[in-house]
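ok so I'm stuck.
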Amino acid sequence: MLMRFSKSQVIFAVCLVISTLGHAGLFEDDEARKAILDLRQRIEKLKTDADQIQTSSKDDNAGLGRGLLELQRQIELLRADLASERGVNEKLTKDLTDLQQRYKDDVQSLSDRMAKLEPAKITLDGVDFTASPAEKRDYDAALAIFRKGDFVTAQNLFSGFMSRYPVSGYALSALFWLGNAQYATRDYKDAIVNFRALVAKNPEHARAPEAVLSVANCQLELKDSKGARATLTNLIKAYPQSEAAVAAKERLASLK
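replied:
not stuck anymore, here's the structure
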């Protein structure tokens, strides 16, 4: 194993050699030469060891420097990897959030579409029933046109409604408004048919008293006073508590 000496040790050794040389005269010539050679060898060895120590120290420092540089490089690579992982994690988190939001939106959209297809509970003119979204849409559209005063278009819409939904919960109310649209366009005969159809299908319907009164009005427009009188009389008997009965009494009084 290579022995390592400090500089102070080397200096001490050199001083020792010099001191020894100073006392060389005390020995015989052969012994002195031998001692000198021995000392020279020792000095050379000390120098060699010192050089090796210095070289080894430089190599160690160089190796340490290279090690530190490699460690720094590894640290930087690790930091880059961590930054990349954070970026990937952030993207994955965002993608997951976006996916969850799209899922919620799709579910809500599907729910909305299903709601538009499912029958809804309707209460109209005192009658409870269920109707498809299409039925409600078509009935409301026809009634909106009637209220705007476009009676010809309203007739077509209500007639079409009755053809498409003959057993709809809206059917009797549709008959009532169809009859009124026909009355407004002076189609009195067809109006009478529809008003009577409403009463025949459900005499207890909320619109029945008005329908009977409307029949009498159509008869009066057709100059059928006798028929109108009979209709008004039957209205008062069938629905004595209705507002239509009050109006029927006034009409009868005016016919006398």
